[in-house]
Amino acid sequence: MDPVTRLFGAITDRVIEQPRRVVIACLVVTALFAPGMALLEASAGSDQFTDGIEESDALDRVNEQFEPAFGGDDPTTQLIQRDTNVLDRRGLLDMLATAERLDERDSLRVTSFSAPAMDVAAELDEDADTPEAARDAIERASDGQIEDAVAAAARDPGFATLLSDDFNKESGTASASLGVVNHGFPASADTQAIQSEAQTVAEEAPGDITAFGSGIVDDEFQRVIFDSLGIVVPAALAVILGLLAYAYRDPFDFVLGGIALLMTVVWTFGFTGYAGIAFSEVLIAVPVLLLAIGIDFGIHTVNRYREDRAASAPPETAMRGALGQLVVAYSIIAGTTIIGFLANLTSSLPPLREFGLVAGLGICFTLVIFVGFLPAAKLLLDRWRAERSLPEFGSRPLGSEDSALGRLLPRLSGISRPAPAVFLVVVLLITAGAAGYGAGVDTTFEDDDFLPPSEEPAYVDYLPGPLQPGEYTATETINFLSDNFATSEDDTVTIYVERRMTSDAALRSLARAERDPPDTFVTVDGRASTDSVQGAIDAYASEDPEFEQLVEESSLDDGRPNRNLDRIYAELRDSPYDDFTGEYLADDDRSTRIVYAVESDASDAEIAADARRVADRYRGDAIATGQIVVFQAVADTIFDSAIVSLAAALGLSAVFLVILFWLLLGSPTLGLVTLVPVTVAVATLTATMRLGGIPFNAITATILAITIGLGVDYTVHVAHRFHDEYARGGDVDAAVITTLRGTGGALTGTWATTALGTGVLVLAITPVLGQFGLLTAASITLAYFASLIVLPPALVVWVAVVERRPGLLFVGRLFDAAGAIDGESDTTDRARTDGGASAGGAAADSPAEAFEWQTDPRASDDDPSQKR
């Protein structure tokens, strides 16, 4: 007996002979892992995906070296005011009253406040440097004085930066304004708590003013995960438990299967908590996977056990036969699935690497629980029931011969039965076309992927109170800022240049890069529309004659200075344009940034590519960055990760399956055959994504790994059962029919439960989770049908090639499929009774088959039930 067979035999013996110890050990491990779940922390938002991205690192350097349009190094809160006119008396007083209330809160540590209202008050009273003093100045002034003060403040170029795009200098009107509150906290302070308190104050203040900031966005990023789970989990549990109840049809088995599933979640996320891995949106896929694989293992174990119990085998013998076959399939499935998920470690995105690690460990835990705990607990449960003479409620296996499902599933083979080779060729051609079409699926990465929609779905209104989600405003506020303020990054890209900006050619190199802009860039008089330190030079020169003369004396014909740059920069920093200069020139004059306006209707991919080409024009170390470029870089990385992990998963799975089928079943080529329907499912899924307009994003990037994992799960069950049945009887038709009926019945229960259970993710608040749920259900469905429709003819072709029986492909198989299925009972019985002699030789060369016949020393030719 080979070492692998001895190992599986030892595992089976331990589970069957010492079930109480196995159950107690698993419960102890569960108790040890459970506290780790309390250590789980949420990680949400787009920032977790940008770590290590070159363009993102450049953007971080930009934010560190250049003064922002508003705010400083301290935590800041934005006050967004909306009104008919935010620059009239009432609008100014509303903003100042809110700022004053924030200033009075000692817990907020307000150090400074800037807003158009403060600028207007300063024109009325130069000593009005606090919100309270500014409010007094506005209240004392007449309407005419306020209008004059607004006109005077508008002459400052920085005044309009905090006003909406509809600001009219002549009339002194604007429909929205921004106020910036600086807090005296360190950078590591809890901005969520600070801005949440500020939000409460703003809601109680007069006028339509909203507090906003990164802390509020991060809070909604995290809350939407748990609110989505609060809606989805009860719905998923209701569907899964209802279908499991039908699959098991026995309350004791139902409860036992549920406990086993719960243990897999506790083990996996207990470990995750102990390991300090934050629960992100991507990890929402992990419990879906654990439920899918766990439900599959549980239903198959109980179903195979019931098959042998129906043949009057004692409980220990029936469980020994079930484990004797399934432990091999489970090991192959777990090993291949783990490899598929660990392929995500090739990704450069930390969340995808964490997903691969957690999912791989989760599958390990699932294997231990469903090979150890569930069979041992099932034996103890049946002993306990027998001692008390409790009735059996639903011991008949799914897909039994006299059931509707048992009659329907074998008919699936009728599709390919007349000419399996031709059918397989047609399927592969369609798969190639689907793969080519699916290769064009889009890839996106946006903040909106993680936020709830600006309007909640209609069904939310019908949810009971405990399931009602909280109120979300971040998406609406972000959209408002993007639509109404020029500070939005939606239509700009940044070129970050590291070079000595006091060199003679520094500003002239900026001018050269602006010539002949690409199509996606906004042009003005044939040049790119930019904001840079040159803009500050031109603006100040137009107001100060002495500075204008300095610039002219330092420039050539094009007006770009090439001398005296250190003096020019020094005078700019002493001018009213100091803030504007600081936005584009570093304090040490060793780096600069240039902001290019881009066409709003251009695609992010086109804009990012053009921005990189423009960056190449600069002398010095230049890199394209900005939100569009960073997010496109992440999207490209997501797509590359999906393709690389797909190739790695398929390649490693093929090698692993070949080795395992060779070691365990003596049939290495059978491992390659099992990947045929998996490939079909993956190609069809990508084509479905493109057809449905569903892109790869931070969440759906995991779907290919899930499809491989579940696809291998289903196909290994079918291939392994077919191998056993064919080795036993030597009849291809009988092996296919028995496999479709027995294993197909269990797979049907698994498919219905997991597809519908995960499909309820469409109820999640965030659209991206709804897309993930839809794709998961689609991948499960495709894997199910591929394993029952595509794999059987592939197995027939495999037998024909391996045993050189070309008649199986065409000749002798052109008969009516329905008639063949009608006579399947006789075929099956004949295979089991008359085919024993031929089965013996086949089984002798199979380590798994040898193990199966040797697990019970009482097994004999006279009792076939004990051989299973």
From TrEMBL:
It comes from the Archaea. Residues 824-868 are annotated as: Disordered. The chain crosses the membrane at residues 21-40, 224-247, 254-277, 283-302, 323-343, 355-381, 421-440, 642-665, 672-692, 698-716, 751-770, 782-801. The keyword Isomerase does not apply. Residues 834-846 have a biased composition (Low complexity). It is a multi-pass membrane protein. It is found in: Cell membrane. InterPro entries: MMPL_dom, Mycobact_MmpL, SSD. Its main location: membrane. SUPFAM superfamilies: Multidrug efflux transporter AcrB transmembrane domain (SSF82866). This is MMPL family transporter. It comes from Halorubrum ezzemoulense.
